[in-house]
Amino acid sequence: MSDCANCIVRNQAICGALSPDELEILNKAGRKQRLTAGQTLFWEGDDSLLVANVIEGVLKLSTSMADGREQIVGVVFPSDFIGRPFGGVSSHSVTALTDAYLCTFARSDFDRFAAQYPALERKLLDRTLTELDRARKWMLLLGRKTATEKTASFILEMSDRLGRQGCESEGPADSFLLPLGRQQIADILGLTIETVSRQLTKMKQDGLIELPDRRAITIRDRDALQMQVA
Question: What angle do CA 14, 96, 160 make, to 5 degrees?
Fold first, then answer.
């Protein structure tokens, strides 16, 4: 395993709270793992045996509905932490949307380490509260916003998360490739695929975005796009 000090997401990941000596100890407990697009790291209902920092790539969190359909409940990006520390079972499956590179830890090893270093536990708490805030905003998005507001919010969120890619100095991207197909976007937003397509086409016609292909988006008028959310 390479030196944690050279990790491209260290400053934003939970391990950024650790000193060099503490990082060296954590370094010895982890291993790097590559996933190809479509590969699942762990499944919903499995014992929580693994946790990980995302170094590169985008992954989805999904759960199965009673009728067998998949519901995407979240998307994770570089510097995000995945898995359930301190026991329990996985409440969702984690699958790579793109080729991904992870720093993984046996959950039991990570739990023992975290119990000894309050700074890491505090970082975990901060990350959990951030995710809770994001989940609450998403509940508002799904429950109260119009199709236009939902689609614009999604584009801006992808712009922010994909633009940063784990690097603290970078900001939102004006051009990016979506890690999700339109049916997956529709599932996340609680819309039909036809509605998502209509919204994207309307935004293109209004000069807010360009759509070079079905996965690529270029934001032409960010202020106007943000007005769609307000």
Answer: 55
Domain 4-137, architecture per CATH: Sandwich (2.60)
The 3-state DSSP composition of the chain as helix, strand, coil percent (nearest 5) reads 45, 25, 35
What value does the mean pLDDT take over residues 123-149?
77
Which region among 43-57, 62-76, 125-139 has the lowest average model confidence (pLDDT)?
125-139
| DSSP string covering 12-28 | TSGGGGS-HHHHHHHHH
Structure-model confidence comparison of residues 28 and 208, the more confident one: 208
- Model pLDDT, residue 144: 75
Amino acid at 35: L
Tokens of 84: 């359930």
Architecture of domain 145-227: Orthogonal Bundle (1.10)
Distance, CA of 173 to CA of 159 (rounded, Å): 5
